[in-house]
């Protein structure tokens, strides 16, 4: 692989070597000292795996272009590309040398035994992994029909494209591909041979970069290195549940741990259409997955979602009337707020009860070495621990907010806002006639008059 890369114009390989390290396994060692920010490695465009190359490949390209129906995902295209290259007996020597250097198996949670997965029963990883296994089976069946048994079936010998091969290729993409946002706002996902041998460290800065002009991938030193050190890159602020699902490892005590809370409303629920509009304008959906984190265990989006979900008819009517005002960003009424906070406290309690082993017991088991360090069950236990910590913080925050609302000391009192422009933290005046809404000034009152006239008259006549 290294000689192919050097011939293609890769830079920096003479200063690096592959080596085995404790904990991380195989990685990259530097033979040279580097100061933070110095360039360590560059992999040129022609050695990268990208979707566009699969589509213009002389053999694979026509098969991919002949696929009918919805376009293949980037992930599936790269997975097929890798399996296709791996299946060839001649040609593609460079890419095949890269495939030969890839691991033959992975420790993503989709490969866990039932017993190993049970260690994180109750966690969002547990549910997501079970769902993912079903999705992979469906996606594989779809690929068989649309690609493997399609017009170019001779290119895809089925014994080299089994579901196990597909899972392996997907894990290859999940754990080795890099994502970048390009200056035009589009994104690119690529695999960079040799650079994909670099392990993750939370101790280094983000230091892998894609140059959209030369279309090459470079790795800079994310910290100072001495000769002999392992070189790392930073995969991102990824929680353990995602690390284990995509990369097959965890970082004990991960500060980015999270719990993926799924909030859903059935379309048959009362006033669904109106609520749906409000969720959309708040950047949410009728089924929203919101990440609770250690630093923000109860994000405002959770409250926003529920305020809309539990809003009564009159509150909804007022919200729909002023779509420019993000009313659900703050408490809409005491009763609504108490209802949603009570619901959250109870729900978090139920979710916590679903974890097979309580937090303290798990901490004790990990300290006693009940799970062999670095193994699948040990990794699942760390995910379990992280998710329970987040959920406990979320429950505590909901309890505190509930107590504050009940005692009337809530800082989340609804903010009066201008009915026209939505400004809240400015002096406001009441509509002199109906006394039902407020404006930040005469200009807004005049601008809003046409819209407000009808309600103003009815409310004013009621007020008489
Ligand atoms: C991009 S590859 C890095 C090279 C990989 N170690 C190899 O031998 O091919 C990512 C994989 O490396 C391993 N890895 C990376 N960083 C790690 C870390 N901090 N601790 C444990 N394993 C790590 C995981 O298996 C992960 O899926």
TrEMBL record:
InterPro entries assigned: Rubisco_LSMT_subst-bd (IPR015353), Rubisco_LSMT_subst-bd_sf (IPR036464), SET_dom (IPR001214), SET_dom_sf (IPR046341), SETD3_SETD6_MTase (IPR050600), Znf_MYND (IPR002893)
PANTHER family xrefs: N-LYSINE METHYLTRANSFERASE SETD6, UNCHARACTERIZED PUTATIVE METHYLTRANSFERASE
Entry keywords, A to Z: Metal-binding, Methyltransferase, S-adenosyl-L-methionine, Transferase, Zinc, Zinc-finger
Top-level taxon in the UniProt lineage: Eukaryota
Annotated organism of origin: Apodospora peruviana
The protein's name: Suppressor of anucleate metulae protein B
SET domain sequence ranges: 14-236
GO cellular component: a single term: nucleus
């Amino acid at each position: 692989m290294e000689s192919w890369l050097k011939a293609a114009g890769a830079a920096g390989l003479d200063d690096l070597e592959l080596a085995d390290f404790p904990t991380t396994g195989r990685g990259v060692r530097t033979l040279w000292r580097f100061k933070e920010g110095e360039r360590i490695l560059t992999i040129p465009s022609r050695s990268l795996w990208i979707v566009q190359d699969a589509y213009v490949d002389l053999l694979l390209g026509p098969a991919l272009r002949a696929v009918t129906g919805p376009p293949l995902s980037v992930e599936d295209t790269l997975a097929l590309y890798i399996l296709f290259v791996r299946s060839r007996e001649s040609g593609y020597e460079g890419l095949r040398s890269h495939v030969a250097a890839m691991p033959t198996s992975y420790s993503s949670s989709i490969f866990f035994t039932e017993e190993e997965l049970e260690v994180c029963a109750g966690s969002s990883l547990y549910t997501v992994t079970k769902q993912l296994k079903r999705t992979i089976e469906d996606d594989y069946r779809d690929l068989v029909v649309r690609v493997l048994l399609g017009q170019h079936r001779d290119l895809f010998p089925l014994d080299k494209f089994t579901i196990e091969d597909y899972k392996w290729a997907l894990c290859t993409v999940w754990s080795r591909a890099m994502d970048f946002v390009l200056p035009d706002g589009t994104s690119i996902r690529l695999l960079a041979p040799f650079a994909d041998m670099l392990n993750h460290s939370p101790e280094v800065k983000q230091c892998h970069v894609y140059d959209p002009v030369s279309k090459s991938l470079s790795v800079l030193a994310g910290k100072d290195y001495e000769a002999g050190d392992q070189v790392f890159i930073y995969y991102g602020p990824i929680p353990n549940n995602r690390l284990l699902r995509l990369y097959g490892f965890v970082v004990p005590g991960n500060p980015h741990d999270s719990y993926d809370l799924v909030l859903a409303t059935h379309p048959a629920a009362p006033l669904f259409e109106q609520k749906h509009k409000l969720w959309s304008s708040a950047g949410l959906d009728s089924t929203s997955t919101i990440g609770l984190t250690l630093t923000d265990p109860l994000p405002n989006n959770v409250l926003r979602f529920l305020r809309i979900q539990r809003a009564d008819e009159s509150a909804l009517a007022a919200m729909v009337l002023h779509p420019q005002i993000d009313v659900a960003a703050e408490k809409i009424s005491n009763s609504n707020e108490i209802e949603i906070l009570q619901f959250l406290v109870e729900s978090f309690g139920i979710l916590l009860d679903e974890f097979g082993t309580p937090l303290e017991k798990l901490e004790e088991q990990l300290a006693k070495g009940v799970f062999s360090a670095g193994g699948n069950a040990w990794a699942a236990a760390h995910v379990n621990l992280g998710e329970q910590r987040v959920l406990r913080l979320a429950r505590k925050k909901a309890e505190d907010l509930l107590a504050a609302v009940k005692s009337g000391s809530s800082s989340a009192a609804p903010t009066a806002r201008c009915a026209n422009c939505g400004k809240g933290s400015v002096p406001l005046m009441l509509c002199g006639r109906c006394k039902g809404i407020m404006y930040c000034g005469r200009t807004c009152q005049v601008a809003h008059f046409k819209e407000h006239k009808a309600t103003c008259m009815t409310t004013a006549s009621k007020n008489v």
